[in-house]
Amino acid sequence: MNKTPLITQHNQQQRRYFEAAPKPTMRPADTPYVLQQADEVLRFGNLTRGDRILEVGCGMGLYTFYLLRRGYCVEGPELSPAQVEWFKAFDGGSYGVPVLCADILYYGTRFAGRFDAVIGFFVLHHLHNLPACFSSIVSILNPGHCVSCQNIPL
Question: Given the DSSP bridges, would you call strands 52-56 and 99-101 parallel, antiparallel or unpaired?
Answer without folding.
Answer: unpaired
